[in-house]
Amino acid sequence: MIVIIAEKPSVGRELARIVGATTRADGYMSGNGYAVTWAFGHLVQITTPLSQTPWRRDLLPIMPDQFYLEVGTRTDSKSGKKVPDEGYAHQLEVIRTLFNDAEYIINAGDAGREGELIQRYIYAYVGCTRPVKRLWISSLTDKAIREGLASLHDSSEFDSLYAAGKARNEADWLVGINATRALTVLSGGNGVKSLGRVQTPTLAMVCKRFQEHENFVPQTFWTLRVSSAKDGLPFKASSKDKYTEKDKAEGDMRSLFEGKEMTVRTMEQKDKTIPPPYLHDLTSLQKEANKRYNLSAQTTLDIAQSLYEKKVLTYPRTGSKFIPEDVFATIPSLIANVTQTPSRYAPYAASMAGKTLSKRSVDQTKVTDHHAILPTEVTPTGLGDLEQKVYDLVICRMLEAMSPVCEMQSTVVEFTGGTQDNIPLVAKGSVTKAPGWKAVRMVDGPEGQDEDKPKGKGKGKASDEENKDDQQSLPSFKVGDRVPVLKVECKEDKTKPKPLHTEATLLEAMEHAGRELTDEQLKDALKDVGIGTPATRAGEIEMILSRGYVQRKGKSLIPTPLGLNIYESVKDKYIANVEMTGRWETSLAKIVDGKVSAKAFDESIRRFVVALTSEILEDKDGKGARIGASSPDAMICPKCGAAMTMWDKCVKCTSCGQVYWREVAHKKLSEATMRKLFRDGKTQVLKGFVSAKGNTFDAAIALNTLGLMVFDFSDVPPKTPPPSSSGGGPSDPPSSSQASS
Question: pTM here?
Fold first, then answer.
């Protein structure tokens, strides 16, 4: 009997159908000389007796000489403790029995690092002694499965892949258990403060961007925009530089209007070609799904996995955007198949028949475990709305990647104007001569063009008006031409901070973590280094969300007070070091290639863990204490002393339920203001409160002896006395009125 073991039941059933194993049994299917069984993901996990030691400072770091395997665990609903999963244990016994009777075993786990790790742990746990062959396929179509079964690999070919997976698994265990226990012990045991090798640098990226955004001080600037026309064609020109002084901007505005004309000083036209994008890997698919449909990275991965199991997409957990020559040879038939699908890109696919296809995404040397994500030859039916959207993103990208370059002509005209003819202005325009690959998304309208919008540079991002001007059609000019000044506007604007991270931009930052570095030499050396892998990044984002470190607000990712406190505790420590985490990912990739030994990697991780644990426990700056209940930055309930949670509309005690509303007298109080209130018992003087009679007033907010929010006017300058009122309450406060209850 030949035993095939898949990673999950749904894949096992497909394999069973192909090999003719049609008889159902407990935990497997059999027939035609085969038994097909399956795992449920991580049936087996690593452990060590040291993991059961008390959470004490003197027992850290935990450094086991070796790891053992145990049945995967679940959380007991009554005790809340981790216990062996009975279903996992039963399935492992089914697998053990089948393996003992096998002639040989076919490893049909997911064809990647984690898939290999899951299978090898199972073999080791059940004591497998039979020969193992490897099924390695990039799609679950009947054709791919049959071809894969006809050309099985020897399991030893993937030993280095397993070594990398095992090294990653043990490194995450060592870093996670020691960092988590060290910070939790340091903060007085007030709740577990989970840290991780990839999780913590990811949290740091979100928190750092949030703080940069919150602390950004906008600078006001002014831009002059001139309306003109030539040969009956209107156009707009803008001042070449931003003005930092309003008087200067308004003076030049008057001069331009009085000068009545602008003179062409230079004109430059350039033909440029924009190459088609590469095919999708998992990360780029997740980024685009988040930008266009606000899908989370995990949701996109789950949908792509579902489409893979429905045989309409190739393997989704890939980090490659390239395909080899033999796959490129199948692209014409895949494009032809699109014309028979419900995809809105079917008409464009039909127009590509017989045309030469771009080979920009064809490069065998850049194909990793799997090639880029492609549709299969199977025509989808009955897809759900989100499945159709993700499927269409893959279709769209394949058509774009195989289409010709976009040909454009850009024009930049420089003018001078004003009464002295010395004020520099510039007009920019562009004309699409041949849309090429950009024609694919014309069926989407503006939605499909978002990622192609020009991006502003310099002080402040380009406004929508400036972007529109850059795309305008310009008349024909020659040097010396004079054109009329029809209208002059002085536009005031402010510089803007980098936007808060979305899942799309966080995935980008994780993929190219080296770009975040400030040391240019190091930045160049690590320019292609990322943290996590395409298959794990979604899980890391979900981890910091589920642990309450980050929350979603629209598309933005916002750190919670807990997340910010943990970040402040570790931001300067090894655990949050993006560079180091990125180097580890590079080392893991080199283990797969045989360029780095797993032993050397393990030794480096253990040295790191010793230094990391010592660094956290020493905590010379006292930052670790800031996440304890006695922390000066923690929000502690003035009524019962328990921790409080920040919400969009209020701050609420996690114990007694006391609520403090964040909108008082028509003014929303910021998170920083609320933290200051509970830290110091009083805020600074705040402007812009509005009484019930419509009067504005300034006041501080304080906590009274009953733990209630009240207005405090003691620091308000005499020139703005508090409004009088006989009613009290938050809308018309007397000098010590109650602001909330």
Answer: 0.77
